[in-house]
Amino acid sequence: MKIGIIGAGQLSRMLAIAGIPMGFEFVFFNTAKESCVDNLGKVYHSTFNDVKTIRQFADECDIITYENENIPYDFIKSLELLKPVYPNAEVLKSTQDRLLEKKLFKTLAIPTVPYQAIEDRNDLQLFVNQYDFPVIIKSRQQGYDGKGQYKIGSKSEIDKVANLTLSNSIVEKMISFDREVSIIAVRSVLGEIQYYDLAENTHVNGVLNRTVNRKDDPMFELAKSYIDKIVNHFNYIGCIALEFFQVKDELLANEIAPRVHNSGHWTIEGAFCSQFQNHLRAISGCALGNTNSSGFYSMTNMLGKLLPRHEILKSPNHYFHDYHKYPTPGRKVGHICEKI
């Protein structure tokens, strides 16, 4: 079976590395200049409106998936006319727009922090009048790893964003929380569903820094009940992650990731079947693998540049993954998993 992947970043790379020993072949559709998947399959370099190349790509695939949610909805809808695409376009539509995502949470009775759509400074001021400072402004589209986000802690700081385009944004109340956690579920075309351990996450400047899996976490069942609502709502196929802020015994949903997720990289070494293997099993009609963990693991992102190998692999419990990406400040270029 040949699997098409939209994107050629590190998630596509890890999917292919997981899938090649399983007998899958891969073909990639890449709109970026750089590729992390060279020598892992054929790569089509083109744009989302290149009809001829899109059809050539689809003709080579048996099924199609994608590695991020910043892909045009209409592009995925057009691919669905040619080949099965998992996850479907409707979940993409809701998760690539922060406002639609918040409305989805409300529809499904999944709690979130207070928020409001804004178009100008007056909208921002009205929200602050109701909820006070601090707040965070987020662009509705294309925001990830802290991009397109502005923290406002006082009235004087509003002037700092006065000249920025506030239209097509949302504002959220910044809250004090106990920790950030996420849960990953995987559902197959056969209807089978499995879950990985709850992950406890630490972010720095909006970018995930470190994840630790928490076996038998007391918040697991609540997180599971919320992600089930999303999976059932969309008839979801594949891996999906849901991020939360925990405040006492409450979980407030932050974001959905309709794909394999950074907070699940620990599963490569730490689970009997990784999120990458299980995503491929799910979309290809195979039985799901065992999602149980074999212990406690931490995953730390490497940002900007890689350390020398002897420093990275300084312990027999360290496992290193190089993304084959050009190093630039703040960019994810690899990760270390450690058995703890």
Key structural traits:
Dna Ligase, domain 1, 17 strands, D-amino Acid Aminotransferase, Chain A, domain 1, nine-stranded antiparallel beta sheet, globular, Rossmann fold, 340 residues
Please provide a written account of the structure.
The structure is a single chain. With 340 residues, the protein is of the alpha+beta class. It folds into 3 domains: 2-85, Rossmann fold, CATH 3.40.50.20; 114-173, 2-Layer Sandwich (Dna Ligase, domain 1); 179-339, ATP-grasp fold, B domain (D-amino Acid Aminotransferase, Chain A, domain 1, 2-Layer Sandwich). The chain is 27% helix and 30% strand. It has 11 helices and 17 strands. Strands 9, 10, 11, 12, 13, 14, 15, 16 and 17 form a 9-stranded antiparallel beta sheet that branches. It has a 4-stranded parallel beta sheet with strand order 3-2-1-4, sandwiched between helices. Helix 1 crosses helix 10 (275-284). The protein is globular and about 60 Å long. The two termini are 37 Å apart. The mean pLDDT is 95.
Set out the fold topology.
Blueprint: E1 2-6, H1 10-19, E2 25-30, E3 42-45, H2 51-60, E4 63-66, H3 73-80, H4 89-95, H5 98-107, E5 115-118, H6 121-131, E6 135-139, E7 149-152, H7 158-161, E8 169-173, E9 179-187, E10 193-195, E11 198-204, E12 207-214, H8 220-234, E13 238-247, E14 250-257, H9 267-270, H10 275-284, E15 297-303, H11 309-312, E16 318-322, E17 332-339
Parallel strand pairs: 1-2, 1-4, 2-3
Antiparallel strand pairs: 5-8, 6-7, 6-8, 9-10, 9-11, 9-13, 11-12, 12-15, 13-14, 15-17, 16-17
Helix pairs in contact: 1-10, 3-4
